[in-house]
Amino acid sequence: MSVRRVYLLEGGYLRLNRSIMIAGGDYGRTELGPVYMVLLETSEGWVLIDTGLNPLGVSAPEKAWGPRAKAVPPTLCAEDDVRYRLKQLGLVPEDVHRVIHTHLHWDHTGGNRFFPHATFLVQKAEYRFAFWPDRHFAGPYMRDHFDCGVKYELVEGDVEVMPGLYLLFTPGHTPGHQSVLVTLAGGRRLLFTGDAAYTMENLERTLPPGHLWSPSRGMESLLKLKTVQSLSGALVLPSHDPDLWTRFPPSPRAIA
Ligand SMILES: [Zn+2]
């Protein structure tokens, strides 16, 4: 049992304030941060990490995202639909039997409804909070995105999903955030931070993203990721790094 190949599926962009990307950073200056999904070919079948932005937003942004369509305007085209990205690889949603959620924010759950046959792995703390979030953190949770009849399997803490595929509990951005450590058959390691680190700068400067449910837990999780990076030698892929597509090719090419 192992992970054989890894693909990054393009999912559009968000115009993000620098102060959201880096705690305390350049308030008022914005940058385009990519949204992407990760597809893993494993010996147990296809596994997807997150489902991207809601493709309804291409034609009807306010219907898809409400006030966030203007507050954090996405740049999205029809090809950024997770179903289209799978099709480019000769796959259909039914080929994906498992989806891992870093967390349940809107830009990570927009395609959930296309995978009614799959099992979604999410931290119990995240699942609970998403249904009844604190009022001032409710905006990024869009219930019609994640409460759409899909089957969730709740996990707690650090979990080995299969040999070579590990979930690392990294709360702070949200109460039940998790990151994903992948070890390929040849030993190469990749660390998908999710929103525990939006950019490489978060790790390099040891500054968490500005959007934090708990600043202290966010800092602890960032330090945990740096420790895992240093001990494992993993290549780190943050969630919304403006330089992502200069570092890695998008699908249909594999990055590993
Ligand atoms: Zn988020």
Kindly describe this structure.
The chain has helices at residues 18-21, 61-65, 68-71, 82-88, 106-109, 124-131, 143-146, 200-204, 215-232, 244-247; strands at 3-17, 30-42, 45-49, 74-75, 96-100, 119-123, 151-155, 159-162, 165-169, 178-183, 189-194, 235-238. By secondary structure, the chain is an alpha/beta fold. The chain has a single domain, classed as Ribonuclease Z/Hydroxyacylglutathione hydrolase-like (Metallo-beta-lactamase, Chain A), CATH 3.60.15.10. The strands form two sheets. A seven-stranded mixed sheet has the order 4-1-2-3-5-6-7. A five-stranded mixed sheet has the order 8-9-10-11-12, with helices on one face. It is globular. Zinc ion (ZN) is lined by residues 103, 105, 140, 173, 195. The site of zinc ion (ZN) has 5 residues, from loops.
What does the overall shape look like?
globular
CATH class: Alpha Beta
Per DSSP, what share of the residues sits in E-state strands of 2 or more residues? Answer: 25-35%
The count of DSSP E runs of length 2 or more, i.e. the number of strands, is 12
Distance between the first and last residues' Cα: 17 Å
Task: Quote the CATH topology.
Answer: Metallo-beta-lactamase, Chain A
CATH homologous superfamily annotation: Ribonuclease Z/Hydroxyacylglutathione hydrolase-like
Please provide the ordered H/E string of secondary-structure elements: EHEEHHEHEHEHHEEEEEHHEH
Q: pLDDT under 50 segments (min length 5)? A: none
Which cofactor or ligand species appear? zinc ion
Counting structural domains, the number is: 1
Helix content estimate: 10-25%
Strand order in the largest sheet = 4-1-2-3-5-6-7
Q: What is the mean predicted local confidence, pLDDT?
A: 96
Our count of helices gives 10
Radius of gyration: 17 Å
CATH architecture grouping: 4-Layer Sandwich
What structural class results from the helix and strand content? alpha/beta
